[in-house]
Amino acid sequence: MFSKLYIKKNKLRTQKFLIFLGSFLIIFISFSKERQFRYEYQKGAPWQHEDLFASYGFSIYKLPEELKYEIDSINNNLLLYFSYSENYENIVIEQIEEDFEKQWANFMKDDSLRRKIDKTYKYAPYPNKNNYKKYLSVIIKDIKTVYNAGIYDPSEILNYTDVKDFKLVFMNGNFIRTYTRDNVFTLKLAYEFILDDIKTNAEKDNNKDDILNFYKKFTFEKYINPNLKFDKLKTKEIKELSIENISKTRGFMQAGELIVGKGEIISLDKFRILESYKNSYEQAGNKGVTRMTQAGNAIVVMLLLIVLLFYLKNNQHEIYDNIRSLLLIFILIIIFVGLTAIIAKFSLFNIYIFPVALLPLILKTFFDDKSALFILLVAILLLGFIVPNGFEFVVIQFIAGFASIFGHSQLTKRSQLYYSAFSVFVAMSLIYTGIAIIHEGSILEIDYVQYLYFGLNGLLLLSAYPLIYAFERLFGFISDITLLELSSTNNTLLQKISTTAPGTFQHSLQVSHLAEAAAKKIGANSLLVRVGALYHDIGKTSTPAFFIENQVTGYNPHDQISFDQSAQIIINHVTNGIAMATKNKLPQQLIDFIRTHHGTTTVQYFYKNYIKKFPDKKDEVEKFTYPGPKPFSKETAILMMSDAIEAASRSLKEINVDIMKHLVENIIDNQMQNKQFDDANITLKEITTLKELYTELLLNIYHARIEYPK
Hints:
The chain has about 700 residues and is mainly alpha-helical. It folds into three domains: about 1-35 and about 285-475, no CATH class; about 75-245, no CATH class; about 480-700, Hypothetical protein af1432 (Orthogonal Bundle). It has helices at about 1-10, 10-30, 65-75, 90-115, 130-150, 155-160, 185-200, 210-215, 230-245, 270-285, 285-315, 315-320, 325-345, 360-365, 370-385, 390-405, 415-440, 450-460, 465-475, 480-485, 490-500, 500-520, 525-535, 565-585, 590-595, 605-615, 635-650, 655-675, 685-700, and strands spanning about 50-55, 60, 80-85, 150, 165-170, 175-180, 185, 230, 250-255, 260. The strands form four sheets. The protein has a four-stranded mixed β-sheet with strand order 6-5-3-8. The chain has a two-stranded antiparallel ribbon with strand order 1-10. A two-stranded antiparallel ribbon has the order 2-9. A hairpin with a 2-residue loop joins strand 5 and strand 6 (about 175-180). The relative contact order is 0.07. The model is unreliable at about 705-710 (pLDDT under 50).
């Protein structure tokens, strides 16, 4: 019973603890359970720690890029294996000789027929078979040449590789020959080789045209067939064996040997040794070490989350005391840490494609810049323990997040989102270029593919709009985009005010201008208070004639009813406004302005008249009191001041500096005496500043001339 009562009394504290505990457990699970190398280092930078000696012997492994280079070298200098049929051309030669005799017989028949038909050809010399046959020997010689060199079908290897610089290995039993691609023939090259040779030899013959026409009727394609058969399985087997036989090491480091000295520049060789030592160190953990690693992870995660809570408690009370705000912040941290951990663990894609800068971009929409930046810092510090090259990652993502936060003032237009995405791309590219030059010592050694990843990162930032909308709906927040949409005079409620209660609408516009200027002056949310001011009096549309700003005919319906009834109608514009706003699904933040703009003040005019008539009923002040609550933020306090001052200023018959100053001070001081601002985080200094501002603004509105000292 006691525990239930305790939880009930400390509901907010319990909710905060559960959010913290849940976030801690989820993030802790995301952390690696392996032992982490304690030293941070970068290639090309000096070793910042004490002299490092090998505590045990270990192999020095090649770097991933070195192994990749050797594998690429094997892939780019392929040996393609073919089986070789050595006697295939003998069958083809026999076929060519038979086809020549058949072709010659047909040729002589055509010649005899032509002599009977064509009188001019009748006495032409008869074709000399030996003269034609001598070209047959040229063809046979060329056939032997191409078959001896080897003919292969290139279509067989197109699906296997697109590498152009490969070598061919011919196998025929124990006989093996290796040639480059230029030493063998494809089907097309073999065919062209034979025809070109016939043309070259026929150039010296008097009847070359007849000879070429004779041999053009030969279908050489059927004589040219591959005598090299691509052996895909053998090629794949040899290739995999070659890759498997690549040595993964480049030496061995003895126990006690110096790995790197303090201040020594980490060269490629030193970097290779350090990477090997780091990998062997992290893989050498036992169960005890794993438990200690988990304990260390728990301490790191817990401390960073506690630091975040302390920051919010000491600097952002509104966020710290709002469960929805805390829940949103910790859920976002969990999402970004969790997704980054998954990407890093399974190497799904380059870690810099994932837009971590989305985190502060979303947070900035609902909170202030400083909070968004601090939360980003906590999140990327957590990520620094998860991703490779943690220091480099933290620096790049911090700069990117900074660019996303301060790349624009407010996210109210699509163009600003594009600008933010471009700012993040430029920021990431510049800081990466600087780090890469430090590491490599030359701009020529930079991995330019990284810039493509940064570009993809920037494109993914454009998903901020739908994500902001989703979080806005899920957590009940309100973004500047939504506020701008609601401030449009085309909005249904605002149109209803302008047509049903035009005087109230003009009053709301004036109040919105005053409130916006006041909010800007003391650093409050000017857009929120401006839109809140536009809607604060929507309840008056239920009974517009009972409010003086809408009475244009001189008729006052209050004259027909009692003072307490009049007060109730006036007070009801708050409850009616809340009902209308709820029905039209206005955000809770705007409903708060309707609810609090009169706080717990009394309708003084009707109350004083009621007391005059019924002196013995002074205790019935509740009938004339607004239900509240009091303003609980700077913005709601500003609206209360602006509303009362604007309404009172309309009744002034004479306007000058002293009168206006007295009006402003009297109204605000009266609100303070009634403790209307006790729940709002507004200071006396800010209230004093606003008094001066309201006086100046009202004088400008009513065009009063300031009296300068003589």
